[in-house]
Amino acid sequence: MAKGVSKVAYKPVGMVLGLGAGILAGAIFKQVWKLASGDADAPDAIDEERGWGEILAAAALQGAIFAVVRAAVDRGGATGVRRLTGRWPV
Does any domain span residue 69? Predict the structure, then answer.
């Protein structure tokens, strides 16, 4: 008997969670950027009006938020699968 839920069975759940994580991370980043910079819009990499420091700071913050949200959502999804099935997805 397998130790956990197969990767194939968990893949659709993981994809939906990943999409939700991306949307949630984007919303969180927008609010954090607004609080940190006082500007409602985060800079785009090709925004001519913004400097390198601001562009790179925004990218680093966005990446960090995305990674934390994604890890939390993935871990929560795996925990939920275990609660439903009694097995950890592998």
Answer: yes
